Amino acid sequence: MSQDHHHQELGFIQKYIFSVDHKVIGVQYGVTALIFLFLGFCMMMLMRWQLAYPGEEVPILGGLLGSGWLPDFMSAGDVDASTYNTLGAMHGTVMIFLGVVPLGVGAFGNYLVPLQVGAPDMAFPKLNAASYWTYFAGGVVMMLGFFMPGGAANSGWTSYPPLSIFASNGQTVWLVGMVLLITSSLLGSVNIIVTIIQLRAPGLSFFKLPFFVWAQLVTSFILLLAFPPLEAAGVLQLMDRVAGTSFFLPTGLVQSNMPLEIAGGGNSLLWQHLFWFLAHPEVYVLILPAIGIVTEIVVNNTRKPLYGYKTLVYSGIFLGFMSFLVWAHHMFMTGMGETMSDFFQVTTMIISIPSVVVLTVLIITLWGGSIRFNVPMLFAVAFLPMFAIGGLTGLPLGLTASDIYFHDTYYVIGHFHYVVAPGTLFALFAGIYYWYPKVVGRKMSSFWGKIHFWGSLISINLVFFPMLLQGISGLNRRMYDPTFYEHGASIQSLNVIISYAAWALGLVQLIFILNFFLSIKFGKKVGDNPWQATTLEWATPTPPPHGNFLSEPTVYHGPYEYSVPGRTEDYLPQHVQA
Amino acid sequence: MEKLQYGIGLMPDLSTHGHGIDQLIYFLHGFMLLLFVGWGIFLAYTLIRFRARAGHKANYESLKSKLPKYAEVAVVAFEVFLLVGLSMPVWNSYKSDPPDEKEALRVRVVGQQFAWYIHYAGEDKKFGRTDSKLISDFNPLGIDSKDPASEDDFYSLRNFNLPVGKPIIAEITSKDVIHSFGVPVLRVKQDATPGITVPIWFTAKETGEFEIICSQLCGIGHSTMGGKVHVQKPEDFKKWWDEQERPYKKSTASL
Amino acid sequence: MSLDLIKYIEEPHPLTGITNSKLAMWLFLATEVMLFGGLFSAYIILRVGAPDWPHGSEYLNVPLATANTMVLIISSVTMVMSWASLAMKSLPKFKFYMTMTILLACVFLVIKYIEYSHKFHLELYPSTNNFFGIYFTLTGLHGLHIIGGILVNTYFLLTANKSWAEHPKMFTGRIEAAGLYWHFVDLVWIFLFPVLYLL
User: Fold this and answer.
1) Of C67, C36, C51, C60, nearest to C199 (Cα)?
2) I need a surface site. Which of A6, A356, B71, C94 has the fewest CB within 10 A?
């Protein structure tokens, strides 16, 4: 069945640049997303300088970046208020839309879904390539903002109008970039859904799918239904900025005591509703693929079947569904009525239940296993308590009464970073270490991997835990000078600790980057199934050829048949007849 | 008045309604800590007990105990208690119980890039008509001087004087972009959205000078968009009130 | 290309009963429903919040829009006919009906252009008020969908000989999916017409 010979003739460009092979596209997504993650991380490190040493010139970089080739960016060599706002908005946008989502859905989804369902490729290979290149274009457009007069977008990643309507042209570029990114995500999610529904190998019924595939399916549906309203909102904001409409501009706006020449009659809160209707489900777009990856790795390294597979699947579906009903808990302080705030408090508490179930399922799976602590497993296990902190700290924010105090403080930053950084990103690291051998044919160094893990775990907690304390102490987010108010100045030492921890975290990532690239050449060579795993991606040659499987696999078992009694090996692959 | 002490921990609470909020925060964090520590110990124990080692094998059968189910139900029950027993009553009793308008001091709080204006209604307790078309550097709130109700109106910039122990109703709005009127020591936070006016209320328990902090990104000057709440003894407040100039008062000469 | 390895391109999947492209089209239409749903809700919120909102018929040209509604409905019929022709294995008939569909779509755009230029002549722009803002945004976005449809249909028309000769089943499936899209675009207009012009 393999068409391999016939593909050898493809030139370099067709094979590696404009490829339609889902694996190449997956790797393209992965590498691009990692580059953007690194860029977003650098933006954050600049902000951390300002937060630790407000108003001081940034050493070395101040001269390099402030020399004027980026207009209105660090013009005096320090991170001034306008630069800080730009960095804040772009850090959020880059990390979420150009980093984590493309890595979790674009890279892992693309590479693994066809393999795990036993398909030769995605259902629409050309559409897949189109999706990647649209994402790439969106990313480039987004970055072009930095070269615009007035700098890139600076109204927060949430882009609340009217502020975003008054902002410099970087915001227009941001909107155009967003429309491209949304288009890319929609194309990608259609492809993933069709692949999962239509192209499963014979015998692979829905309840034999690895949980990772389920997570991708739910994620794709969330993307499919949540992104278009943001696209609608983006179009309306673009009209406000470019065509002079007043969709988000109420009557009687005045700037610098000069009445504005606009028609008025708009509604600023309309944007927030449309935005959060996407952006809350987006959180589950970030976390579900992570849970999928963690499940695969935890089960594989526990060497026993997953506890409560169906419970986990139903929880995932329920999470996806509920994620559409909680958006206004981001808007408790806008002055909504009691009925509304009660409704959204209740839905917010309800959505915490499946998260509790997910954690319980994973930890009970560990019970009775024979747990191997390799690098992917370390990251996957660390995900559990980190995600737990992220989830728990959501409670005070999801309850309106305590939200009065915590809204817009560093508590919010600490909370969602615990979910996304040591949560999702740790899971993504786990995934990279776990599937790297399948892609490259060699393992990443386990010694340096362990140093990367412990270094990251310690420093990332030193970054985000103090932020929770800052929030409790009443420090507001998005302040370029945290010492302006007395209570902020009194806890400034926390900011210094956080900044050093953040830079240490950056250094530790250099180890990862070196390990990632050097292992391509120097890593330990491995066979087709180095982790003794059961799912279908390990039934292919390493690295898998174009077309994936040598012959179409037939599936006989559920995804996690480990330590089946009466077998010499402690794993029973899905495609092997017992 | 004593100087407030800041540091790591909740900021001092000087409002009459803040007690419920703080209680909820303490209670929540106690619950979170308990859950996390208990759960963390269980995780650590599991990881150590079931680590791979010579002679140890994984068990194909899953845990049969009903314990995890009970634990989940307990967590859910506790969340319901937090929601129905603590958060909703605190929020709803606060939000649905505005003070009596006759006894309260009503002010308008108007945000702009990057300052707060406080509009006092004067002795007649009626705000003069405002119109955004009248706004200029000399009339930053756009108060209509033709409206008789405006005669005793006055406003102040960045300084919010109010009497201790008296309920305050503040109507929050904005002229340009979205701001948020936050006074953490009074446990008050409300977005100031242009085109919308939202009333909030609070009563200060003690005198002193507290920070107003803009709590919604509003542009380049956001982090310095502050102000001061001056909570004064009633007699001091009265004195301050009487000293204020009434810019819209028709001069007696024109009568 | 590993195209020949991917299943259910021509034959429907035994369980779902549809081909890949048809499923994908339905999913894509779901995103479109959410997109226009978002815009319609924005319209409702803006209109409910406005102290006064002009009646569409006072400012917009109802006869022209009615004509346009008819044009689109007929083009939907010709689109169905073009697919039915392929199902009955007649390529020339397909070409005729597909050409008709494309021409009717162009007629729609011409009428729309007349409407737009008349508005601009009267100095009615998107910035005039939110009624015109939402009118231009919604009809503009719908117009882009029409243009997209014209491009895709033209591509199918130009490559019809080759596709029909090589993969007749796949080609018929593609025309069916394109038809789904085209009917959706019509349906959006059938919502837009009363909402903007009549209410």
Assistant:
1) C60
2) A6
pLDDT higher than 70, residue A267: yes
From the number of C-beta atoms within 10 Å of its C-beta (0-12, 13-18, 19+), residue A113 rates as buried
The answer, yes or no, to whether ipTM is higher than 0.90 is yes
Q: Kindly list the residues from chain C whose CB atom is less than 8 angstroms away from the CB atom of residue A236.
A: 39, 42, 137
B179 in helix, strand or coil? strand
C148 and chain A: CB distance < 8 Å anywhere? Answer: no
Mean pLDDT of A469-492: 95
DSSP assignments along A137-174, one per residue: HHHHHHHHGGGSTT-B--STTTT-TTHHHHS-THHHHH
Percent of chain A with pLDDT over 90: 88
Tokens read off for C69: 């509604």
pLDDT > 90: what percent of chain B? 72
Is pLDDT at A109 greater than 70 in this prediction? yes
| First vs last C-alpha separation in chain A | 24
Domain boundaries, chain C: 18-198
Which of A276, A399, A465 is most worth mutating to test chain B (most B CB atoms within 10 A of its CB)? A399
pLDDT at B179: 97
Cα–Cα dist A357/B72, whole Å: 7
Of residues B39, B177, B215, nearest to A407 (C-beta): B215
Q: Given phi > 0 = left and psi -120 to 50 = alpha, else beta, which region is B42?
A: alpha
- Smallest Cα–Cα separation from A402: which of B227, B31, B196? B31
Whether domain A19-249+264-539 has CATH 3.40.50.1000 = no
pLDDT tens digits, residue range A61-91?
A: 888 888 888 888 998 889 999 999 999 999 9
Q: Is C8 on the interface with A (CB under 8 A)?
A: yes
List chains adjacent to chain C, taking adjacency as at least 3 C-beta pairs closer than 8 Å: A
Contact between residue A188 and residue A138 where contact means Cβ atoms under 8 Å apart: no
CA separation (Å) from A383 to A389, A427, A433, A510?
10, 6, 14, 21
Measured distance CA(B15)–CA(C78) in Å, rounded: 71
The answer to whether C55 contacts chain A (CB < 8 Å) is no
Q: What is the pLDDT of residues A9-40, one digit of tens each?
A: 567 777 778 899 999 999 999 999 999 999 99
Fill in the DSSP letter of residue A571: B
**Chain A residues within 8 A of B22 when measuring between CB atoms:** 405
Rounded distance between C-alpha atoms, residue A113 and residue A576, angstroms = 20
Burial of C48 (0-12, 13-18, 19+ CB in 10 A): exposed
- Of the candidates B21, B60, B196, the beta carbon closest to that of A564 is on B60
Q: Give me the numbers of helices (H) and strands (E) for chain B, helices first please.
A: 4, 10
Question: What distance in Å separates the CA atoms of residue C115 and residue C147, rounded to the nearest whole number?
Answer: 17
* Bridge pairing between strands B179-183 and B208-214: antiparallel
Architecture of C18-198 per CATH? Up-down Bundle (1.20)
Between B47, B96, B195, which is nearest A371 by CB?
A: B47
Q: Which helix (H) or strand (E) holds C60?
A: none
Interface with A, mutate which of C27, C123, C135, C142 (most A CBs under 10 A)? C27
Q: Which of A400, A484, A572 to mutate to test the interface with B (most CBs of B within 10 A)?
A: A400
What's A373's DSSP letter? -
Cβ distance of A476 and B220 shorter than 8 Å: no
A-chain residues within 8 Å CB-CB of C177?
none
CB contact under 8 A, A304 and B59: yes
Number of Cβ atoms within 10 Å of the Cβ of A1: 12
- Could you give the CA distance from residue A96 to residue A4 in angstroms, rounded to a whole number? 37
